[in-house]
Amino acid sequence: MKIVNNPSNLVKARQAVSALPDEERAVLILVCAEGLSYRDAAEKLSISQAELQGRLLRARLALMKNMSAPISLFEKRKPDFLSVAEVACLPARKF
Questions:
Q1: Distance between CA 26 and CA 39 in Å, rounded?
Q2: 67, 84 in Cβ contact below 8 A?
Q3: Which of 7, 51, 52, 61 is deepest in the core (most CB within 10 A)?
Q4: 3-state secondary structure of 81
Q5: Are 75 and 63 a contacting pair, CB within 8 Å?
Q6: With left for phi above 0 and alpha for psi between -120 and 50, is residue 66 left, alpha or beta?
Q7: Which of 80, 90, 86 has its CA nearest to residue 31?
Q8: Can you tell me the distance from the alpha carbon of 30 to that of 95, in angstroms, rounded to the nearest whole number?
Q9: pLDDT band at residue 14, thresholds of 50, 70 and 90?
Q10: pTM here?
């Protein structure tokens, strides 16, 4: 499922990411959209790697629940797919 091909999925992705608590959204964007390692993202946020992993898991589970999407959409960078965080960061467009 390429979520960028379906405009309604773009809207859902933006809404789902926006609904996350700030702490979870920040972790998701740093790791999934910006491609930072867990260590680098944890350092940037001044938290432990264990805390970062917990926040990331909660964010991914919330997105899966809200979007009814498979976990593969939320894994670190896949060359032919955009993660929900990446889609949520795209500028809004008219379709």
A1: 14
A2: yes
A3: 52
A4: strand
A5: no
A6: alpha
A7: 86
A8: 28
A9: confident
A10: 0.65
Packing angle between helix 7-19 and helix 49-67, nearest 10 degrees? Answer: 140
Half-sphere exposure at residue 52, Cβ-oriented, CA atoms within 13 angstroms: 21
User: Helix and strand tally (H, E) in the chain?
Assistant: 5, 0
Cα 27 to Cα 8, 16, 53, 56, 80: the distances in Å are 24, 14, 9, 6, 22
Nearest to 76 by CA among 13, 30, 32: 32
| Tens-digit pLDDT profile for residues 49-89 | 999 999 999 998 888 887 765 555 555 544 444 555 555 55
